[in-house]
What does this fold into?
Amino acid sequence: MNLEIVPTGAALGAEIRGVDLAQPIDEATFATIERAYDEHGVIFFRDQRITAEQHVAFTRRFGEIAYNIFGQRWSVPGCPEIVVVSNITDDGKPIGIRRAGEYWHSDMCYTARPPRGTILYAIETPELLGLPLGDTEFASAAAAWDALPESLQQRLLGRRAVFDFTARKRAFPPKPEEILVNPPVRHPIVRTHPRTGRKCLYVMRDDCAAIEGLDAEEAEALIAALADHIVKPQFIYRHRWRPGDLLMWDNCTVQHRAIQDYDLPQRRKMHRTTMGGSVPV
It folds into this structure.
């Protein structure tokens, strides 16, 4: 494979060219892909044609698979590892989770071991009059950390936030058993990437319910200020989807949101897998 890495020119993100994910990938090529993933936070491959089994196998190259809470409701038949993200209905019933991720967030931050990353494979993408819809925005929480004044960095180091699964308003309300297995957890506000050592802000407006050592009003103001800082334009890459795109993002240093600017009859169908992660430090 004649692999080429093409940075997006934004604060994060790169396109990987010359790789067919339907074919076997040797160890040297995979090591180059993984280094690009760690370095750029978001990488994507255009014009892929892969099966569900190939999608799962590629995900496993990065470690164990983490099962998303929506997998029990909307997974690919025979592949419980893959969650269907879609606005399409079949006989009046949704085939996947719709309006997923429309607020800035890092996936499954409410768990004790948030996932290393997420892989999204585009099967159908919406458009109107030839104009693509349904973009996804990604923000570099690492670049946002680097841009903070040193005095504020020192104030944040060592502090921990409380992440509460029930704090966010979700498109589909969580079931009682889902709430039971996801009690509130505490993670450092300044997180260190487990492979690169790069520091980043790990704060989400709708998932962080409190900050240890601060009263509610002060914590709310600090969370809001940091959350707004992370998503400033200079830290963002906006991905315009095409069918056949396979894109993956790092859930430590990257936050994302889906742009909900479409609805039926514009159809969107994605297959999503999630990599297992580690306890944030």
Observations:
- The chain has a mean pLDDT of 92.
